[in-house]
Amino acid sequence: MSGTRSFQAPKGTRDFYPPQMAVRRHIEEVWRRASIDCGFEEIDGPTFEHLDLYTVKSGEGIVSELFSFRRAGGEDDYALRPEFTPTLARMAAAKGSSLALPTKWFAIPSHFRAERPQRGRLREFFQWNVDVIGLGEPDGEVEVIEAAVLALERLGLDPHRVQVRLSHRDAVAALLTSLGTPEPSLPAAFELLDRFDRLPPDEFARRGEALGLDADSIARLRASVVAVQPMSEPAGAMAEAMGVTAAQLASIEPLQERLRRSGLLEWCTFDPGIVRGLAYYKGIVFEIHETGGAERAVAGGGRYDGLISLVGGPDLSACGMGMGDVVLSLVLRDRGLLPADEGESLLPRPDAFAVALSDDAAARLPSVLQGLRRAGLHARSSHRASRNLGKLLADANKCRARFAVILDAGVAEGSATVKDLASGEQSDVAIASLADELAARIAAESAR
RNA sequence: GCGACCGUAGCUCAGUUGGUUAGAGCACCGGAUUGUGAUUCCGGACGUCGCGGGUUCGAGUCCCGUCGGUCGCCCCA
User: Fold this and answer.
1) ipTM for the complex?
2) Which stretches of A14-99 are assigned E, i.e. beta strand?
3) Which mean pLDDT values do the consecutive 10-residue runs of chain A (448 residues) have?
4) Which of chain A's residues 238-267 bind strand B, using a 7 Å CB cutoff?
5) Distance A405 CA to B28 C1' (A)
6) Protein A79 CA to nucleic acid B65 C1', in Å?
7) Interatomic distance A114 CA / B74 C1' (Å)
8) Going by CATH, does the domain composed of A18-334 fall within 3.10.20.740?
9) Separation of alpha carbons A346 and A112, rounded Å
10) Is there contact between A360 and strand B, defined as CB under 7 Å from any strand atom?
11) In whole angstroms, how far apart are CA A294 and each of A17, A226, A270, A300, A334?
């Protein structure tokens, strides 16, 4: 045929065939259940927004990282959403003072970023967003972290495999100030901290000097950043290990106490190297990492008081986090927490697989299937013409059906043979009561 | 935006210094046989060698470009 072309998926996007889709749904279902169980309500917004919504938050520099577009002949600039927080802030702002506080929302939207794909980073991905509006520090943060930890736990992870690494802008600022960082250099110093583990030691020192720190201060800063502490450590001991005064860590203590009451301490680490984007986060910031240190952050979040008023709403406090599906899937795979068959075993299992061994039986097959389906059962049949029972059962087995319904000469008397594919047992059942019989057996099975 | 490596049936790969009509194993489809997820047998579809140029008598093989993939850098909301 002339005029045909072949196509590849665009760079950094994924096709979800049934097994991959089953894995995605598995993760999304855990996210959704954990959110709901923690009292969050689901929202969604548009896949694209006015470009300005993103530049007003992140600056013009963000545009090169976005998929932005203008309708042919139009004059408005739009962008596919690279994150959900601006949409959420806009939605909260639009409700104005009618928004009941606190408001706890979650969403599982797709996001788009015009970046070069690499391990843990794609151009389209799914991200679970959990946000609390109208709760101050540290209550909002702990609500968010609690939901994240619940989901990770349900996915099979534990505090030995993942840790919530927390920091506090005020504590780190106090540390930097005590080391002699001039006030105007603080943002640059945060940036330096953020790059700590990516810079060679001498380069770190050189940049520290440029910020007005002497050699002794740089050494102390390095020591503080390296001194990652379990959140379960008493604040006094933590301060000592970091070489700071207890007063400089004062902003951590309420958080620590609140995490203790929620039983989350063992999941959490204090890590002054956690900085996150400077654009709008303040106060507590955190990332969730697998403890091996091989993968990128599984999740990140913090407090963004001021963003809602920035997009025209009331001055509301807010905090939240985002957890992407890409890194999370890598971590789950690394830890053997996803099926080795890449999702086949997560596909929905048919309750019944009907096969016909004669022309008369084949004529009855559609009505038998319809009866089962109307009763709410997942029923399939083979699409092959063969009357070879061995091959037909192989089909039933391949899609992991629970029961085979064998239609043969017995259909003349209204009877079928039901074979339990797990045990191999089989028995004759009246076709009229097939759906009830199978439903009863499945109910009994799930009750065990 | 920059760099490295990679691209041959659905999958895993083979394919000699460029040389007939590009192969294998799984998987797949149809059928026969044995009425029970199996075995055996017969048959089928299997690929514009990512795509496009170039060099050559001749390109899966060499060169250039491009599109994808993988992994780094930048960035990471």
Assistant:
1) 0.82
2) 41-42, 48-50, 68-70, 77-80
3) 60 86 93 98 97 90 90 93 96 95 97 92 96 96 98 97 94 87 86 83 85 87 86 90 85 94 96 80 92 92 93 95 96 87 82 88 90 94 79 84 90 91 88 94 84
4) none
5) 25
6) 31
7) 13
8) no
9) 27
10) no
11) 28, 18, 19, 16, 10
pTM: 0.92
Residue A96 contacts strand B, CB under 7 A: no
A11 C-beta less than 7 Å away from strand B: yes
Q: Is the CB of A113 under 7 A from strand B?
A: yes
Nucleotide with the nearest C1' to A114 CA: B75
Q: Cα A65 vs. chain centroid, distance in angstroms?
A: 21
Judge whether residue A334 contacts strand B, using its CB and a 7 Å cut-off: no
The structure tokens 């190297």 sit at A273
A349-447 and A18-334 share a CATH fold: no
In the block, which residue shows the tokens 């061995």?
A: A390
To the question of domain A349-447 being in CATH 3.40.50.2300, the answer is: no
Question: What residue ranges do the domains of chain A occupy?
Answer: 18-334, 349-447
